[in-house]
């Protein structure tokens, strides 16, 4: 399921994101029990617990003990709500890292924080990056990463591509874990059940697999031995190891780029 941001009324969405206008806040009479923030927090709780597919104005209203119609005074539609949810969750990420530790340590900490963030809120990974939300917390996240990498001394053009690569890498690595968890829940079959069964069948239907695909067979020969602690599902363990190795390679590549640039 892919959700595209920015599908609501552009002016109203941006006003809500940047809080230049708060629908319902200036109404006369008793202080209302609802607000944009209360509604957004409830929507995040729904998505965290049940996934993006379960999100609706009605579901959020039920969580708050209100009707869906009561929410529209504050948030015009589900489209604006998704934008607000996405941007609000990004506020959880740290807005700065200790420059004394160096850019490599800063990027490593950011990547670890982003990995954990995506797995706390896996529905965020379903919000497409093709059309960004353009909210303040989205820019805080970008400002933070650029601020860390600015210490490399690389020029803006090179740094722009490096930042993009890091975002794609961390998001993609976390998505593997998120989808693995969703697969087990949706199919009722765990990684530990699925992989051995399919691998055994592959051996039956392709007994000459190693001869036909020698490079793949060689690569598989380097697979890690089973861990002592198998509480973490197979694919999650593999994704985590790949994340750590891939991040190290990216950081080494940035260092090599810095060296070539002579900065």
TrEMBL record:
InterPro entries: Homeodomain-like_sf (IPR009057), HTH-type_TetR-like_transc_reg (IPR050109), HTH_TetR (IPR001647), Repressor_TetR_C (IPR004111), Tet_transcr_reg_TetR-rel_C_sf (IPR036271)
Pfam family membership, one: TetR_C_1
Biological processes, Gene Ontology terms: negative regulation of DNA-templated transcription
Start and end residues of each HTH tetR-type domain: 33-93
Keyword terms, alphabetized: DNA-binding, Transcription, Transcription regulation
Residue ranges the UniProt entry marks as DNA-binding: 56-75
GO function term, MF aspect, one: DNA-binding transcription factor activity
The keyword Transcription is assigned to this record: yes
PANTHER family found in the cross-reference section: HTH-TYPE TRANSCRIPTIONAL REGULATOR RUTR (PTHR30055), TRANSCRIPTIONAL REGULATORY PROTEIN (PTHR30055:SF151)
Protein name: TetR family transcriptional regulator
